[in-house]
Amino acid sequence: MSMPAASAAAIGSLCFPISRIRPSSFRPRMTAIRSGAGVDTINHVLTKLQKECATPLPVLRHVADSMANDMRAGLAVDGGSDLKMILSYVDALPTGNEKGLFYALDLGGTNFRVLRVQLGGMDQRVIATEAEQVSIPQELMSGTSEELFDFIASGLAKFAEKESGEFQLSQGRNRELGFTFSFPVKQTSIDSGILIKWTKGFAVSGTAGKDVVACLNEAMKRQGLAMQVSALVNDTVGTLAGAKYWDNDVMVAVILGTGTNACYVERTDAIPKSPGKKSQSGTTIINTEWGAFSTGLPLTEFDRGMDAESINPGEQIFEKTISGMYLGEIVRRVVLKMAEAESLFGNSIPEKLQTPFSLRTPHICAMQQDTSNDLDAVGSILFNEAGIESNVRARQIVLEVCDTIAKRGGRLAGAGIVGILQKMEHDMKGVIFGKRTVVAMDGGLYENYPQYRSYLQDAVTELLGPALSEKIVIEHSKDGSGIGAALLAAANSKYKHDF
Ligand code: BGC
């Protein structure tokens, strides 16, 4: 898949928008390199980086404990911590008995997905599904709310027109939709919620502070599309619902893609900020919005520089340290510093290397898969994406940088997961560590980056020890969030149902 350079580069299913850059902050330049500075200079940058990004057990422990504490503080009172701990209003998870035709719309990155599913109850489960993906033009990511929602509603309308005979709508009903909206939303009910802020490079005007379901409903009306939103869910919540439909031991869901977030099953009586909250099951799902976590993270000058020049400085620090939108950019900043330090990458600094987000996470991931002696693939990626002519030694150094950043990201993500599990175990003794517990994972970063995945697992094992970590199953739940949203639309159908 290729995209215009000014829009988004993508390898596999990892897509990263670049609209978040303040264009004025960067001026292309060709700087002459200080010559004769000596190999030590690059070594010094690398050693300092490795030292500052190190995540030994005490650092992981501190991050896991802080995550658990921040979760508690966020549950105690609104604004009590970086973690918003948003009530999802999903109290009843799908049981498997759901029947009928349901739609899902998934908006969370540079693409949106539409899906329809025919559910056949406990015996037949998922009878048929159909899905389509539409990429969102770059200009719409920084346009107006109406333009964005009109574009989405028109894609949904076109998809709905193509419904074939396999899909059967019960008589007298409107089509119902589960709307996965993967940005921080303050839910006001299962089918309404106010956008708090955009993340992941979106800077659409006029949506923050508004009910996103109302925005979609108005746009669907303009398209003449008769469909109603029965459930508004975050992608983590959709993933949890989708994964739990097949496996009742799923208690946590984590997205590691362009952005990152986690949700989990919480007891309603453990949410002091919402004392009246009750549900039949005694539990509900909490969307942590952990991307905003920031306590005790090992950060460097490169992280601080990237944050300062982002469209949301000081926000989403955990996301900026561990998620797919940012890892490649951190590497680029380190390599640029190395190029400025000495002439290992040639005598002038290529313009591409000075261009923010020219090197992306899919590139650093692809470089780390190169096992050839001369690191040929690393060489071509460096040349094509960053304009760097490199020898084998330079390539090895770049690989060390990639590994350092991926390792820190994966291990910190693992520590975050353990923080959530610790908090749950503390409040529901034996419910987590006393039995098999599944953490459902989704997102292109987790799916496509093997080194990152194994660093994450290592950190979980180190923190929990071999016996406990055996019971914690970290499982990829591919595209669970779309079907999860459709299932939640079914479970929260506006029509009387007998399931
Ligand atoms: C958003 C979350 C979302 C996550 C993963 C973050 O930027 O704030 O709501 O779940 O990305 O898509």
Automatic annotation (TrEMBL):
Gene3D superfamilies: 3.30.420.40, 3.40.367.20. This is Phosphotransferase. Keywords: ATP-binding, Glycolysis, Kinase, Nucleotide-binding, Transferase. Residues 252-490 form the Hexokinase C-terminal domain. One of its GO terms (molecular function) is D-glucose binding. Transmembrane segments: none annotated. It comes from the Eukaryota. Belongs to the hexokinase family. GO terms for biological process: glucose metabolic process; glycolytic process; intracellular glucose homeostasis. Residues 46-245 form the Hexokinase N-terminal domain. It is an enzyme of class 2 (transferase). InterPro entries: ATPase_NBD (IPR043129), Hexokinase (IPR001312), Hexokinase_BS (IPR019807), Hexokinase_C (IPR022673), Hexokinase_N (IPR022672). Its EC number is 2.7.1.-. Pathway: Carbohydrate degradation; glycolysis; D-glyceraldehyde 3-phosphate and glycerone phosphate from D-glucose: step 1/4; Carbohydrate metabolism; hexose metabolism. Coiled coil: none annotated. It comes from Chenopodium quinoa (Quinoa). One of its GO terms (cellular component) is mitochondrion.
